[in-house]
Amino acid sequence: MRHVLALAAGLLLLAGCGQRELLRPPEGASLPPKPAMAATVPTPVELLTPRTDERPERSDELLTKSQERPDDRFDIPPPG
């Protein structure tokens, strides 16, 4: 019974893979228009590649020294 379930699960996962192919606009459609400042129309790969400002690098700087927060005169309890 376990073999049958494992085989069924494997086939289901394999069927979900699908084939990857290059992206193309649908029949009768075209790529988005050329941006105003670009020299050429970007390709689908260029459109899908995030720029540095769209995906900034992570900063893993650790807190090196702790400091007490100064009193905040606007930090008041809720009314009631």
UniProtKB/TrEMBL annotation:
Biased composition (Basic and acidic residues): 51-80
Species annotation: Alterirhizorhabdus solaris
Region of interest (Disordered), ranges: 25-80
Recorded superkingdom: Bacteria
Protein name per its UniProtKB record: Uncharacterized protein
